[in-house]
């Protein structure tokens, strides 16, 4: 009774928490939308801007409180460098088109999809965003760029653009950053037949020559995949063998008749093979034979005594 009451109370609390979560969720969505709308507005108008970023021919009126999400900019704001004193920094090494997307992320928590006419080069675009996010230490942007990269990868890509994406990924990321490198390796070598088909194209061979690390990583990746496939195949063979043995034993048991029934609570007798009983049985048989011989001898002796009398 007490347990049932406790379970009922626990169920009731879970239902109340679920209903509360359902009520809170729309409020969270509304608050998120409100924040993004406000950030988008102050970015578009430049209102309350207190810092300027230049890149090529582009100028960005930004806000320190927003840009400080990047440890790179946060370090500038905290320093005594010229940029901090003048509230201005120039980024001549960055691609203005990719920096545009980084700014979109900082103020919109995302960056827009690639225009339809540029979707063939979308893999390269996301790879560039990924590399820029790594430079400015924005892990959230790296995750978004990786998700968009993989989503576009799943839709299919032409061989020339696959090679361009490979070059971009392998020249802008370190070898320990596997976020996009493993996706490229999967695209090239997920199956040996597919890889052979790609290697028939001169553009693929030339691209692999330009990126010295890629051929080695692809070879080791294929070797690892072959080992994993062999292990999985061997495991399947063992499972099928066990299943066949189990089926054979079941069929044998069925052919030998219905199993003996044992009353509930009664342990069936345990049969244990004891090899020494065989030798004992042989000795006992010999003892019985000797006894019987002695009996016969004694009987014959008694008969001879009676005859003599």
Annotate the secondary structure layout.
Elements: H1 2-45, E1 51-55, E2 58-62, H2 64-67, H3 71-78, H4 82-86, E3 88-90, H5 96-108, H6 122-135, H7 139-154, H8 159-172, H9 181-189, H10 192-199, H11 202-210, H12 212-255, H13 276-308
Parallel strand pairs: 1-3
Antiparallel strand pairs: 1-2
Short overview:
This protein is mainly alpha-helical and 309 residues long.
What descriptive keywords fit this protein?
309 residues; mainly alpha; 72% helix; single chain; flat; 13 helices; 4% strand; disordered C terminus
Task: Describe the fold and architecture.
The protein is mainly α and 309 residues long. Mean pLDDT is 80; it is low at 260-264, 268-273, 275-288, 290-300 and 302-309. The longest helix is centred in the N-terminal third of the chain and has 44 residues, at 2-45. A hairpin with a 2-residue loop joins β1 (51-55) and β2. It is built from 13 helices and 3 strands. Helix content is 72%, strand content 4%.
**What is the ordering of alpha helices and beta strands?**
HEEHHHEHHHHHHHHH
Q: How confident overall, as mean pLDDT?
A: 80
The secondary-structure class comes to mainly alpha
The description of the largest β-sheet is: 3 strands, mixed
Shape: flat
Order of strands, widest sheet? 2-1-3
Strand content: under 5%
Which spans have pLDDT < 50 for at least 5 consecutive residues?
A: 260-264, 268-273, 275-288, 290-300, 302-309
């Amino acid at each position: 009774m007490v347990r049932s009451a406790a379970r009922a109370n626990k169920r009731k609390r879970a239902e109340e928490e679920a209903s509360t979560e359902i009520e809170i969720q729309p409020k969270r969505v509304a608050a998120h939308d409100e924040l993004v709308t406000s950030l988008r507005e102050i970015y578009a108008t430049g209102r309350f801007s207190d810092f300027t970023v230049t890149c090529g021919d582009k100028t960005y009126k930004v806000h320190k409180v927003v840009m400080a999400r990047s440890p790179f900019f946060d370090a500038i704001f905290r320093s005594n460098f010229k940029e901090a004193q003048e509230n201005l920094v120039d980024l001549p090494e960055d691609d203005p088109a990719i920096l545009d997307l980084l700014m979109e992320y900082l103020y919109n928590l995302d960056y827009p999809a690639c225009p339809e006419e540029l979707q063939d080069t979308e893999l390269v675009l996301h790879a560039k965003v990924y590399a820029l996010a790594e430079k400015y230490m924005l892990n959230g942007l790296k995750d978004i760029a990786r998700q968009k990269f993989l989503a576009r990868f799943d839709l299919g890509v032409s061989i020339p653009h696959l090679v361009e994406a490979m070059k971009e990924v392998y020249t802008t990321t370190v070898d320990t950053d596997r976020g996009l490198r493993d996706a490229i390796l999967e695209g090239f070598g997920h199956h040996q037949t597919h890889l052979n088909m790609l290697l028939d194209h001169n553009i693929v061979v030339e691209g692999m020559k330009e990126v010295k690390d890629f051929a080695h990583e692809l070879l080791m990746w294929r070797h690892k995949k072959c080992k994993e496939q062999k292990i999985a195949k061997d495991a399947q063979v063992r499972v099928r063998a066990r299943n066949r043995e189990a089926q054979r034993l079941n069929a044998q048991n069925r052919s030998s008749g219905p199993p003996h029934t044992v009353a509930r609570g009664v342990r069936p007798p345990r049969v244990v093979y004891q090899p020494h009983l065989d030798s004992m049985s042989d000795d006992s048989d010999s003892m019985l034979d000797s006894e019987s011989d002695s009996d016969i001898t004694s009987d014959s002796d008694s008969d001879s005594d009676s005859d003599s009398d």
